[in-house]
Amino acid sequence: MSEKNYKLFDSEKKVMEVLWANGTMTAGEIVKVLRDSIGWNRNTTYTVIKKCIAKGAIERTEPKFQCTAAISKEQVQDYETNELVDRMFDGSKEKFFAAFLEGGKLSEDEVKSLKEMVNQLK
Asked: Which one of 3, 7, 89, 102 is most buried, by most CB atoms within 10 A?
């Protein structure tokens, strides 16, 4: 699959978060983590893992149904951010950033950090 689909549903993100945090795991290990953390049963977890495999987000290898993240969290974040900017701000990052700054209360440290990020872009 040359062009990966970085659009993940919330359930798919839960599976991916486990892999991003822990690295390669068997499907059974993922089942245990999600059962203990959010109460998912085995069938639910396997269904979501298979959806992630179909999208190219997870690579499956044998033995024991080994699962490895095929996309990074940063790739998903970039995709989701661009989708939001396109959908809500007509593709304008400037409008997005302005709305972000107007809408929230930022601490002095957050403002300083954002200024440093902008200055590094120059």
From this structure: 89
> What does residue 34 show for φ and ψ, rounded to 5 degrees?
-75, -30
Q: How do beta strands 25-26 and 58-61 pair?
A: unpaired
Q: Tell me: the pLDDT tens digits for 85-99?
A: 999 999 998 898 888
Q: What is the pTM of this model?
A: 0.81
Cβ-count burial 85-94 (b if 16+ within 10 Å, e if not):
beeebeeeee
**Rounded CA gap, 35 and 44, in Å?**
10
Of residues 41, 46, 52, the one with CA closest to residue 16? 52
Note the pLDDT tens digit of each residue in 41-88.
999 999 999 999 999 999 999 999 999 999 999 999 999 999 999 999
